[in-house]
Amino acid sequence: MTRPRTLYEKIWDAHVVERRADGTCLIFIDRHLVHEVTSPQAFAGLRAAGRTVRRPDLTLAVPDHNLPTTPRRDAAGNKLPIADPESAAQLAALEKNAPDFGIRYIDATAPEQGIVHVVGPELGFSLPGTTIVCGDSHTACHGGIGALAFGIGTSEVEHVLATQTLLLQPAKTMEVRVEGDVGPGVSAKDIILHITGTIGAAGGTGHVIEYTGSAIRALSIEGRLTISNMAIEGGARAGLIAPDAVTFAYLKGRPYAPKGADWDAAVEYWKSLATDPGATYDKVVVIDAADIAPSVTWGTSPEDVVPITGVVPDPASFADPSKQAAAAKSLAYMGLEPGTRMQDVAIENIFIGSCTNSRIEDMRAAAAVIKGRKKAGNVKWAIVVPGSGLVKAQAEAEGLDRIFIEAGLEWREPGCSACLAMNPDKVPAGERCASTSNRNFVGRQGPGSRTHLVSPAMAAAAAVTGRLTDVRELMA
Amino acid sequence: MTPIEKVEGRAIPLGLKNVDTDVIIPAHWLKTTTREGMGKGAFESLRADPGNLFDRPENKGAPILIAGDNFGCGSSREHAAWALGDLGIRVVIAPSYSDIFSGNAVKNGILPVVLPQAAIDRLMEVAETDPIHVDLDTQTVTTPFQDRFAFEIDPFRKMCLLEGLDEISLTEKSGAAIDAYEKKLDAERPWMRPAA
User: Fold this and answer.
1) From the record, what ranges are coiled-coil (chain B) (predicted)?
2) Is the pLDDT at B35 greater than 70, yes or no?
3) Which numeric CATH code is attached to A172-241+269-291?
4) Do A12 and A170 meet the contact criterion of CB atoms below 8 Å apart?
5) What percentage of residues in chain B have a pLDDT greater than 70?
């Protein structure tokens, strides 16, 4: 009888091309997603060495990080130029590199364009049990459908383009089990913020985290993608959620997903991937879903999480002296005083979007709170950025865009937007943003910007009240 | 990649924990299609302070950086390693690193040394006035004051750094094994290829 294995171990074992004496393995990569920011140097490297792309059929390129989220065509249907010359050059490089190397490319104006981590699952390009890489740390996202997916650097992008493999050391395994039912107003984002606050920003370093338990099983695919997306914020290069009937129903019929008899064979295989009874993890964390409130960050690390009903912590309250120092620095940057109620913090900017929270369910959750209300007067800038053209079309078909626009929010074109201060969508210095993105780092949304990470419903609540708000109060 | 064996010189005593790659190099510096010149944007938010560690005359061109836990967390941007390299940094010493950053560092000839916090505290003190010596071959960090700290490193990473190896050339030697894997995959799970 074979040893019981975890989901991670099963996927790993199925992808070993070669095992070296020191335990390093050459791992086959099933899917490679490419965007404009981390690929130009990799393609240049291939050219310099006279190398080709080994498996262009397993590679998909789509621009997302640099793209402005303003209209991409004029009224006559002509493509609009990108004003920033450096962004334009980087986008032009991808537009040229993809066909030069025979890679499928989704153009900035195509209906399927979007954030690479929204596009992959949505098109069925990302599948359970596959290995997926991309030059972006939020590749962890695809773990939500049961793929072993992780971010890589540009040297590794070049390595995968050239060889369709990576040399890797096996990771340790960690189980984060969330049992029970979450209360009203608590979304997948609140679950992952709570987890990150519990395990810390380095809690999963060296590990792949498998999220289990009834609260995880109860989530839709959109919610599971949100959870796994932020595995990296807990230090884990990859997150995983076992594929199940919810996963299969989500993927069936998507353009790149298997069809007919292939589909049946695939489902059969995917069902075999779940962690075996008796398999053990190197680390286990158990969380009671009932303990999770709508959550918000106060500092400049994603581990700086409190319930919305809480207060800004006193740095002296942390046991670790280095955390005390870090918290004091964070509070100075954030312009917050210990003891301030989170609900008393005024907000000038709202960002609803990013690979964490820009799928249709996120749009619906935000719209449900916004509906029939208006943006608060002190909120200067509030944008809603769907994760892809397909999400945008679906939201418009449901009339969600009208709800946002009528309330005074802007409805934008798909892209990474204000998550990372690379395109024109930025938060001004010294101003706060209630943001559905994944990182509250110093300067992440623009130099001097102050980010409070929240769920889509919580961002919507802040938009209508002009301060961080317990969304449950607006749900009554 | 430039091989690395012994590095001696000034160490910048940064010491902070959770230094993320957005702090090492903010996103607006990533709009380039080359690897060069990233040092200009390195630690931009910290260097906005005129008294910052990086721009002190004695730290110019320092080959070593000392940091706290979880160095290089966040974004996978290899630009962080390019930026450090462009500043002249060949060695980072910290209690822990993000997994992606430490891989990126090694691929760019930067040695991520892992030492316990107590050793970091001592090296931070020494770095204020004196140079630090790092020897990858013997896996030790030493100071002019007889301090000697041994560190562990993955043998494959050590070999790559000592020899300045190009990993792609190395993997291409396994071409036959990759061919065999692809063949087996197509036979056993043909549906793994994208349908459309």
Assistant:
1) none
2) yes
3) 3.40.1060.10
4) yes
5) 100
